[in-house]
Every structure is written in structure tokens, then in C-alpha cells.
Amino acid sequence: MDTDKTTALIDSPGFQEFGLNHIDPAQLAAYMPDLKPHVAHCKFYNCSHLHEPGCGVMAAVKSDASAHEISANRYKIYSDLYAELSQARKY
Ligand SMILES: [Zn+2]
């Protein structure tokens, strides 16, 4: 794991209590307090929040996010982690 990602995790409330390796990528958004409320608005229950139509998370991502929205930077952390967790699961 590179330093940037480690730092991002430490900065994320919720991640400090969890080791990464046992998180199912499908559950990742539930561990990110700023993403979690928007998952309820997704059209598909098994939404990965990466490319699905009608995704509540993607709809809430704003480059100038205010409260109750998701910053583009946080969404990038999510997508990076999702890719990393998906990789880890192949072994
Ligand atoms: Zn979604």
C-alpha cells in the first residue's frame, strides 16, 4: 500500500477501526460516512457506485461539495479503494 492511500485512510473517520483486507468492496461505501447516506438513493441494491445509472452516490459527488454532498476527492478515494479491495479478493 502506498503512503498516499494510507494517509487518506487514516484521515477517513470510520476506517481507523477497520483493517482493510476483510472489507468486501460491495460494503466499502457503508464504511465512508459521507458516502453512506447516498447509497439509499441508488437504483440498484448491488450498486458499485462506479458506473451504474441512477446511482445516488455519483449524483451527490460535486467538485465544490458542501454538507450532505460528497467531494470529488473523497469519491476518488472510494474508487481507488474499491479497485484495491477488488484486486485483493482475487487471491
Ligand atoms: Zn450507487
Characterization of the model:
There is one protein chain. The protein is mainly alpha-helical and 91 residues long. The protein has one domain: Ribonucleotide Reductase Protein R1, domain 1 (Orthogonal Bundle), CATH 1.10.40.50. It contains four helices and two strands. A two-stranded parallel sheet has the order 1-2. The chain starts with a helix and ends with a helix. The mean pLDDT is 82. Zinc ion binds next to helix 3.
* Euclidean distance between termini CA atoms: 16 Å
Number of helices: 4
Q: Please state how the strands of the largest beta sheet are arranged side by side.
A: 1-2
Rg computed from alpha carbons, rounded to a whole number of angstroms: 13 Å
Q: Tell me about the largest β-sheet.
A: 2 strands, parallel
Shape: globular
- The CATH architecture can be given as Orthogonal Bundle
The level 1 CATH classification is Mainly Alpha
